[in-house]
Amino acid sequence: MIILTRLNDEKFTLNALYIEQIQSFPDTTITLTTGKKIVVKEKEHDVSEMIEHFYKRIGLTPLIRRPDQTGSGEKEG
């Protein structure tokens, strides 16, 4: 779970497992797997870091690869 802030300064907790994508329009917009969109005050990069920290806490980190990683652990290119 991650704690985020709506544009009206209301704090809420979101289960990060339901996040499908994060975009900046310029406001940070989170799209959930249900199709629901949530606009938050936090920057896209900060939300991504919160998600990564959450995944580490629950033990999902070994299952996640960043786009710049190959299966061998070396950078492509």
UniProtKB/TrEMBL annotation:
UniProt keywords, alphabetically: Cell projection, Cilium, Flagellum
Protein name: Flagellar protein flbD
Domain of life of the source: Bacteria
Species the sequence originates in: Salisediminibacterium beveridgei
Matching Pfam families: FlbD (PF06289)
InterPro entries given in the database record: SwrD-like (IPR009384)
